Amino acid sequence: MSETRHNWTKEEILAIYNKPMMELLYDAATIHRKHHDPNTVQVSTLLSIKTGGCPEDCGYCPQAARYHTDVEGNDLMSVNQVKAQALRAKASGSSRVCMGAAWRNVKDGPEFDQVLEMVRTINKLDMEVCCTLGMITENQAHRLAEAGLYAYNHNLDSSEEYYKEVISTRGFEDRLETIDNVRKTNVTVCSGGIIGMGEAIEDRAGMLVALSTLNPQPESVPINALVAVDGTPLEDQKPVSIWEMVRMVATTRVVMPETQVRLSAGRTQMSQEGQTMCFFAGANSIFAGDKLLTTPNPDVNEDMKLFELLGLNPQKPFIKKMQPKTVEAEDSQYKDLGEKPKWTRPSHTIERNEVKKQEAKQVKA
Ligand code: SF4
């Protein structure tokens, strides 16, 4: 029951998701213990290195330029600013820094060179480095790998079918292509999604089919509960219940036994007991820090108090995979190709996204 399979069907996953809760928890916890230390949780710090002004129309995202939200945009941070934040994260127990930039895709040039330098700098602090920068080409993936990147995050967000109801400015297949590009290097893959966007349970199962049938499966799968932000098209979505979150975490654990299941956005809405249920159901990673890019997150001291209460230990870096070597910029084998890749621009529109775009225009006028 706990062997890694790459042929899960939607029906099988739905059957797991809908099991009586006690059976689901028992199955997930049993598989979890077989593949992981149940008392260890990996702690990552998410850092927004370039905030807001994104050209995409992701219906959940306050960083999309087209919506009117309270997010204040920032240009790309300096390497020194990032280093200072990484040192702070390390001191508070994080083993990984994940740097997020609100870009559609990475463009070769000085900004990408600066990100590569950030990757080198954090790797030299003996921390795992992850980036989430949008779509990347194979060459860019190699350049990140050479700089010492440990993981690349690129979420599938939802099922292929429901993806079209949330985002119209790029296609699901572009997401898979970026993951494929990352897989051509030794960088690990972090890819998951969001529940609570109005999707059906079948869509949650569909997303898990897409992730679990990747071979290899992603080393890390973040499960986010939507944080509905005012001004975004999904602002009126009701929060998901803790039971849905527990079911999603447990099902993810069962179908991807070796993966690190990451409890991500939405933790502020969960009680300590709810988070504990998620850990029992197989979650073994959290994001620390008071902000998750732009949305609120529990205070790191609160997290450490909960860890103490539960006897959980933060995972040390490079337990699952060796620390990547860092190649300096001048010794790089990979050139800046100045490529202008053609990522998909689907032609459909999403009514609620268009409505929010118009409302934002009126507010700004
Ligand atoms: S989720 Fe990422 S790609 Fe989508 S609008 Fe936000 S920053 Fe842009």
Automatic annotation (TrEMBL):
Cofactor binding, note field: Binds 1 [2Fe-2S] cluster. The cluster is coordinated with 3 cysteines and 1 arginine. Binds 1 [4Fe-4S] cluster. The cluster is coordinated with 3 cysteines and an exchangeable S-adenosyl-L-methionine.
Listed GO biological process terms: biotin biosynthetic process
Family listed: Belongs to the radical SAM superfamily. Biotin synthase family.
Assembly behavior: Homodimer.
Family matches, as Pfam families: BATS (PF06968), Radical_SAM (PF04055)
Positions of region (Disordered): 322-365
Protein name, entry field: Biotin synthase
Binding site for [2Fe-2S] cluster: C98, C130, C190, R262
Signal peptide: none
CDD domains, A to Z: Radical_SAM (cd01335)
